[in-house]
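Inverse folding, one chain.
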């Protein structure tokens, strides 16, 4: 897994009425100034591509959600090493 936002990007895309396709979202992102293909967007949604902070903000703005809502706190916590107990 190369990102923790993919699942939430897909969910946010599906909340649009009518649902945004990956192609439509890619087109909107391109209009906003981020040249991205549908294939790259699919890789983001499946966690196979990393996402920069700038890309996170572009996705959130285009999907009309907060950047925080795209972040998966539970997934992030599971990636962190356990805290060491002080002795």
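Residues assigned per position:
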């Amino acid at each position: 897994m190369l990102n923790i936002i993919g699942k939430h990007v897909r969910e946010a895309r599906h909340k649009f009425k009518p649902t945004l396709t990956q192609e439509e979202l890619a087109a909107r992102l391109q209009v906003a100034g981020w040249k991205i293909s549908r294939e790259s967007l699919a890789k983001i949604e499946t966690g196979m591509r990393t996402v920069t902070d700038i890309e996170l903000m572009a996705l959130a703005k285009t999907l009309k959600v907060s950047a925080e809502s795209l972040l998966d706190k539970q997934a992030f916590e599971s990636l962190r090493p356990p805290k060491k107990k002080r002795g």
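Residues 53-63 form the longest helix (11 residues). The chain has a mean pLDDT of 92.
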